[in-house]
């Protein structure tokens, strides 16, 4: 009988082959510009809804000053350019440097959590017209070491447990760090379960080893990585399967993928948003924060 670790690694390899562009007959669509200028970079994204002819996502911007947007919705319809709809950040002081966004799974009414680079989490709900938000809670991630710079936060429900994963981005010689734990939605308290250092083989210079995270329903952990040489680039990015999270005797265990092979290698863009779109028309979608060149999205044509 396979050990759990062996099974986990088998699943990781299987997923890598499944989503590899070399194993898929479909072709990727070209990058689609969302907005120009440094104020519209996508630093995190979350699936919102899919209709017959369109797919919508929430996105966050890592802006820091009053008068600059924090949250928006984009809608992608057919071959059209993405539509952009700003959303008001209502009744709370504006956050500084939002870097990640995740849907909260298993809710009868959709809610979301957005994370700042310093570890503050905003739990909110969209208004019916998608123009405003109402806040359910604001809390901080636990036990963050001094100097932590977060760029990823994701939630996933496995069995009856709500898993939380967050990440320090790292910087070239400094590894990125994955953290994981259980989240209690009644109190918005996280019980940490572990951490792991991680470095990627590509990009190779000015690297943020983890620029975003998502976790699928099998516990597979996907990460984006990116290089950042300044506001005018050049940029490069990659997407990896970092490992798998599993439950063992009420503990949350991470089986790290020891040989990281890019699922995608992407030139000219700095990917800071990754999302897994559900359903037969789904797939992986990426969002960029290309600084002075604005933002773009990229995904497989069956998604759009």
Task: Chart the SSEs and their pairings.
Elements: H1 4-19, E1 32-35, E2 44-50, E3 54-60, E4 71-77, E5 83-87, E6 98-103, E7 112-116, E8 120-126, E9 133-140, E10 150-158, E11 161-168, E12 176-184, E13 189-198, E14 207-215, E15 220-228, E16 235-248, E17 251-256, E18 264-267, E19 271-277, E20 283-288, E21 295-299
Antiparallel strand pairs: 1-21, 2-3, 3-4, 4-5, 6-7, 7-8, 8-9, 10-11, 11-12, 12-13, 14-15, 15-16, 16-17, 16-18, 19-20, 20-21
Short account of what is shown:
The protein is mainly beta.
Structure description:
- The protein is mainly β.
- It has a single domain, classed as Glycosyl hydrolase domain, family 43 (Tachylectin-2, Chain A, 5 Propeller).
- Helices cover 5% and strands 50% of the residues.
- The chain is built from 1 helix and 21 strands.
- The protein has one helix at residues 4-19, and strands at residues 32-35, 44-50, 54-60, 71-77, 83-87, 98-103, 112-116, 120-126, 133-140, 150-158, 161-168, 176-184, 189-198, 207-215, 220-228, 235-248, 251-256, 264-267, 271-277, 283-288, 295-299.
- Strands 14, 15, 16, 17 and 18 form a 5-stranded antiparallel beta sheet that branches.
- Strand 10 (150-158) and strand 11 form a beta hairpin.
- The longest helix is centred in the first third of the chain and has 16 residues, at 4-19.
- It starts with a helix and ends in a 5-residue tail after the last strand.
- Residues 1-27 have low confidence and may be disordered.
Task: Identify the notable features of this structure and list them briefly.
5% helix; 304 residues; Tachylectin-2, Chain A; mainly beta; disordered N terminus; 4-stranded antiparallel beta sheet; 1 helix; 21 strands; globular; 5-stranded antiparallel beta sheet
């Amino acid at each position: 009988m396979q050990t759990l670790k062996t099974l986990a690694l088998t699943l990781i390899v299987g997923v890598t082959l499944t989503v590899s562009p070399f194993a898929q007959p479909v072709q990727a669509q070209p990058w689609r510009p969302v907005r120009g200028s440094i104020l519209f970079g996508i630093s995190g994204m979350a699936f919102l809804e899919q209709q017959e002819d369109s797919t919508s996502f929430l996105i966050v911007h890592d802006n820091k000053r009053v008068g600059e947007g924090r949250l928006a919705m984009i809608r992608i319809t057919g071959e059209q350019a993405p539509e952009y709809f700003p959303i008001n950040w209502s009744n709370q002081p504006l956050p500084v440097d939002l870097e990640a966004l995740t849907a909260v799974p298993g809710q009868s009414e959709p809610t979301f959590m957005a994370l700042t680079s310093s570890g503050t989490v905003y739990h909110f709900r969209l208004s019916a017209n998608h123009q405003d938000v109402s806040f359910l809670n604001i809390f901080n991630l636990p036990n963050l070491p001094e100097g932590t710079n977060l760029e990823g936060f994701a939630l996933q429900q496995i069995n009856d447990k709500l898993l939380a994963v967050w990440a320090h981005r790292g910087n070239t010689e400094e590894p990125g760090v994955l953290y994981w734990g259980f989240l209690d939605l009644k109190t918005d308290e996280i019980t940490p379960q572990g951490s792991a250092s991680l470095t990627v083989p590509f990009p190779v210079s000015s690297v943020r080893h983890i620029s975003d995270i998502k976790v699928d329903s099998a516990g597979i952990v996907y990460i984006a990585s990116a290089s950042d040489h300044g506001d005018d680039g050049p940029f490069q990015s990659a997407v990896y399967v970092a490992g798998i999270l599993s439950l063992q005797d009420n503990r949350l265990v991470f089986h790290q993928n020891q040989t990281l092979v890019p699922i995608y290698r992407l030139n000219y863009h700095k990917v800071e948003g990754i999302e897994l779109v559900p359903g037969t028309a789904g797939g992986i979608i990426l969002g960029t924060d290309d600084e002075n060149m604005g933002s773009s999205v990229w995904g497989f044509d069956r998604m759009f």
